[in-house]
Amino acid sequence: MLRRTFLLAFIAPTLARAHSFRHGNIAIGHAWALPRQLADGQVFFPMAIKGKERDELVAARSDVCTFIQLRENNRYDDPPLKSIRLEPGKPVPMRPTATHLRLVGMTQPLKLGDRFKIILDFLNAGEFEIEVHVEEKPGD
Question: Exposed e or buried b for every residue in 86-100, given b needs 16+ CB within 10 A?
């Protein structure tokens, strides 16, 4: 019993911070960003289609930056992606050095514990707003 109580006390705060979203057939997992001063930032979240129709993330915007690029990796000399495809049965993970959103022209620092909104624009599902948590790693 004591062990179960200890584990629950340890795990519960992490579960309370995790958040996810659903927009039509699109499932979006915990959205997080690395802390940054006024340099470019990065945002990460997993996405999946929960239906049979494919879709694409074609754009994103936020008040915390001038514009957002869809990126495949951290090689910023490569051109940004035109979209991030969502195929049925193929979740899209996002993580540092891989697929992510690049916040360009930051208008404010991103400090640990901050939260901000991003509006995602999907080709078929339209616009949807999510909340991003500023963390060192997901679930911090």
Answer: beeeeebebeeeebb
**Radius of gyration of the CA atoms of the chain, in A:** 16
Report which secondary-structure segment, H or E, holds 6: helix 2-17
> Cβ of 55: how many Cβ atoms within 10 Å?
23
Closest CA to 99 of 59, 46, 62: 46
Please write the tens of the pLDDT for every residue from 20-65: 888 889 999 999 999 999 889 999 999 999 989 999 999 999 999 9
Quick check: 43 and 132 in contact, CB under 8 A?
yes
- The answer to whether the CB of 25 falls within 8 A of the CB of 98 is no
| Domain spans of the chain, in order of start | 20-134
Superfamily of domain 20-134: PCu(A)C copper chaperone (2.60.40.1890)
Both tokens of 99, joined, read 């697929």
Across the range 1-24, mean pLDDT stands at: 51
Condensed to tens digits (0 to 9), the pLDDT of residues 112-128 reads: 999 999 999 999 999 99
